[in-house]
Amino acid sequence: MGVETTISHDKYFVCLYPVAMGLEEGAPLWRQTSATPTLSRSNSSNIKELSYLQYLKQKIKPSEGPPYSHVCQVGDPVLRVRAAEVEPGAVLGEEVQRVINTLVKVMRKVECMGLSAPQIGVPMRILAMEYPERMLKDIPPTIRQARGLVPIPLRVFINPQLRICDSRQAVFLEGCESISGFAACVPRYHSVEIAGLNEKAEAVTWQVSGWPARIVQHEMDHMDGVLYTDRMDSRTFINVRWEEYQMTSATPVLSRARSSDAGFVAYLRHLKRKYMGAKDPPYNHACQVGHPVLRSRAAEVEPGAVLGEEVQKVISTLVKVMRKRECVGLSAPQIGVPMRIFVAEYTERMLEQTSPVHREACDLAVFPLRVFINPRLRVCDSRTVTLVEACESIAGFAASVPRNLAVEVSGEKTPTWVPCGNALILLDEWSEKEEEWASNILDNGLNERAEPVTWQVSGWPARILQHEMDHLDGVLYIDRMDRCTFTNRCWEEHNK
Ligand SMILES: [Zn+2]
Ligand SMILES: [Zn+2]
């Protein structure tokens, strides 16, 4: 998991908002983002400067406000409000017609089967559906039949009402353009009826079953600020490209080889990986959600094997990837190894990136590298604290997660490893500062035979331990999160 320090998207992103991002009371629920692009924008250092001509153009023709020609991403408050009824008399008016046209245009552009007005930044009760024959062509007949896939001509519903006709439920993998690149299993009613006005302000009713019924229910949810992640079986949530990710990030060296001075060395490394089976775990990247290794219970490490080459390689790779990704904790399953090992570290540099307010509110404190093997967790204070948390295996997202206030961790004892609170630290990895810290522990009752003492922590480190411990049992933070806080960390940039 990582640590977040500010609400912006800086490197040390990752954690620590005591409130649901973007959902504070009193915050504007949606904004005419670019209706008034101003000169102050061009003065801002982190936003691309506008030329005076561009400025004039935007001023005369504000082009970026909703309805957007893109799909808003989860985290955008517009996706979480109850959309407003459309005045029947306004349906044929310019504003509503423009929303409908844009909705259909965007739906066709991104090739999805349904889209709702909130997804293009307009909190109105309007949705569109279409499933052309041409998109159906690539789907094997067995899947068509199993899912009840049939072509749908373009349909627009304004102020739609839903009635359940058959309350039996079917569970299928479902995605949403507002949570782009992910999918999860969601139960939906078998058959429903939707009624409302169409784009010509005529009353229409449509009774559907199978896949179209699923789309209707999905789009109806958007009218009330509900996303499929609120209804999903979180254990089925996947990054649809997790496999691709394995392939591409396992061979990043070749692309680097072409552009760097050390090209030849990198090329050799690439060849080595290619021909020596270096794609096997431990990986030099974090596996993404969808990889089965993240969902299995990791195996205990034989205490006698801790000093062996295999386990040592896992540990050193974990530390390397954790530091490369600048996150505060990483578990072996995340690098493709289902063993009960995790590492954690919170450096001075990471702490410096946080604001004093966050430091205090979140109990942030530096701690040196720690390696935990076969750790066991005991809850010491079961009061819960809810803060925003992220995970390298669900890259780009975050959510509020309740965790116990204080925990205690204990791990295996082995020679040449120094137990720290019963967990193990490899002596080689220690810096001077860490030794000093260790001597404090020794002074506090740890003898040289390394009799166990307990590492009992509260606040921030306790959260990290619980997050990483979860990984060892195939649990991710999305299984525990407050679902309405699940957020794409770049949703704001997406609207710019
Ligand atoms: Zn959707
Ligand atoms: Zn994680």
Automatic annotation (TrEMBL):
GO terms for molecular function: metal ion binding; peptide deformylase activity. Keywords: Hydrolase, Metal-binding, Protein biosynthesis. GO terms for biological process: translation. It is an enzyme of class 3 (hydrolase). Its EC number is 3.5.1.88. Coiled coil: none annotated. It catalyses: N-terminal N-formyl-L-methionyl-[peptide] + H2O = N-terminal L-methionyl-[peptide] + formate. GO terms for cellular component: mitochondrion. It holds the Pfam family Pep_deformylase. Gene3D superfamilies: Peptide deformylase. It comes from the Eukaryota. Removes the formyl group from the N-terminal Met of newly synthesized proteins. PANTHER family: PEPTIDE DEFORMYLASE (PTHR10458), PEPTIDE DEFORMYLASE, MITOCHONDRIAL (PTHR10458:SF2). Belongs to the polypeptide deformylase family. This is Peptide deformylase. It comes from Albula glossodonta.
